[in-house]
Amino acid sequence: MGQMSEEQLEVRYGLPREVKYCKKCVMSNQKPNTSIEHKNKDVSRTYIDFDEEEVCAACRYNEIKDNIDWEERGQKLKRLLEKYRKNDGSYDVIVPASGGKDSIFAAYILKHKYGMHPLTVTWAPHIYRMIGWENLQRMIHKGQLSNILFSPNGSVHSYLTRLGFINMLHPFQPFVFGQKNIGPRMSVAFNVPLVMYGESNIEYGDPGDSDDEVMSVERYASEMGLDEIFLGGVSVKQLTVDHNIDLNDLKAFFPVEKKYLAKTGTKVHYLGHYLKWDPQECYYFAVDKVGFKAAEERSEGTYCKYTELDDKLPPINFYTMHTKFGIGRTMYDASQEIRNNKITRDEGVALVRKFDGEYPRLYFKETLDYLGMTKEEFDATCDSFRSPHLWIKDNGQWKLRHPVE
Ligand SMILES: [Zn+2]
Fold first, then answer.
1. Distance 339 CA to ligand 1 centre (A)
2. Which residues contact 155 (CB under 8 A, 6 or more apart)?
3. Which of 12, 292, 346, 367 is the most buried (most CB within 10 A)?
């Protein structure tokens, strides 16, 4: 039997058949755009745009960023906040915040530079890491910010995470879902119409509405029935009937109902639309203002020490992304640093080759307990999601057919 030619290899998830890397950064054309998550059953996904010069949409946006009149956008921000600012003792802006560098930056300047009265809201991570917990406390105490930590039923969250892993190799889907909806949900609960997220998804090459002033309501609201909302690849109807989960424990993961949003007048904005966003500058800012601390060790799956410090599960998320799309966290981190002129493309290539796809070890046992599975089940599930056009088994080892170069 002859070797299968590349054109005959199966391509899964509607991924582009030919693997390409951006000529400016190191991003792969296999990067999925952020989908409207509650509709995500792995159908109708779209992938990052590459133009005829093989430059990705995120790099092109980065060029546009230099030509945006940021002075004018800053004025626009002031006018927006003017409209919502309250001086009667109530909160006037909801800021979803993990206690990471970007959310600290957003909440801090809204309060101390723009005179707003933010309520920061946190969707709890799967399993807190002490360093992330301490950074959240620094934000609250040194940043003089009020905060609500919302933790969904932990046993249900872990069960949904397991389902997301098994059905979609997307263990973070339920988390992303909750995190995206917590801002609008708290806007309704506290009757505060303005919600301000930090950086926009357009920074990562998402198309469409990402650079509009207001986030499209479809991203966090819906009027769908229980058989139309999916969590971890299973409809809510099935979860309540076949899996015996109480509807009460699922609701926090749902998009918010449009009638409530309309009543509050909820509008969701990105601060990144109004202010030029630089993640490394946010880091320096957070260190300076609230004493934010980076980890002593790099996070598994990347070389970076200051991202996603709040949770023990990101290493398996990075690993599953790499398994499914050939893209790990290093590719995101390095691409962003190349765009912001912090490292060269050659350095980026070396970093991706070194750290992307790193097998999780540090919190692995705890993570497997959380997912309720053995290492063997974990590995077998991962392998069953490898798209043949991306992966080849060579001497018992999985290798990317087209690593970045
Ligand atoms: Zn690029």
1. 8
2. none
3. 292
Q: Which two tokens stand for residue 388?
A: 């043949």
- Is there a contact between 266 and 102 (Cβ–Cβ < 8 Å)? no
| Of 102, 72, 47, 70, nearest in space to 282 by CA | 102
pLDDT of residue 2: 45
Give the whole-angstrom CA distance, residue 103 versus residue 282. Answer: 9
- HSE, CB side, 13 Å, CA atoms: give it for residue 182: 24
Can you give the pLDDT at residue 3? 58
DSSP category for residue 283: H
Q: How far is the CA of 22 from the centre of ligand 1 (A)?
A: 5
**Maximal C-alpha separation, the chain:** 78
Residue owning tokens 């230099």 = 66
* Contacts with 361 (C-beta within 8 Å, 6 or more apart), sequence order: 300
Distance 324 CA to ligand 1 centre (A): 20
Q: Measure 114 CA to ligand 1 centroid, in angstroms.
A: 33
String of DSSP letters for 49-94: -B-TT--BHHHHHHHHHHHS-HHHHHHHHHHHHHHH---SSS--EE
Which residues partner with 94 through β-bridges? 119, 195
What are the beta bridge partners of residue 268? 195
Alpha-helical runs (H) found in 225-363:
236-241, 247-250, 258-264, 279-290, 314-325, 329-339, 345-355
Residues 233, 163: contact at Cβ < 8 Å?
yes
pLDDT (0 to 100) of residue 120 = 98
The tokens 């940043």 sit on which residue? 143
If you measure from the C-alpha of residue 100 to the centroid of ligand 1, how many angstroms do you get, rounded to a whole number? 25
- In the chain, the domains with their CATH numbers are 67-273 (3.40.50), 300-405 (no CATH)
How far apart, in whole angstroms, are the C-alpha atoms of residue 347 and residue 391? 24
Structure tokens at 390: 């991306």
Closest CA to 297 of 248, 374, 353, 363: 363
For the chain, which ranges sit under pLDDT 50?
1-2, 37, 40
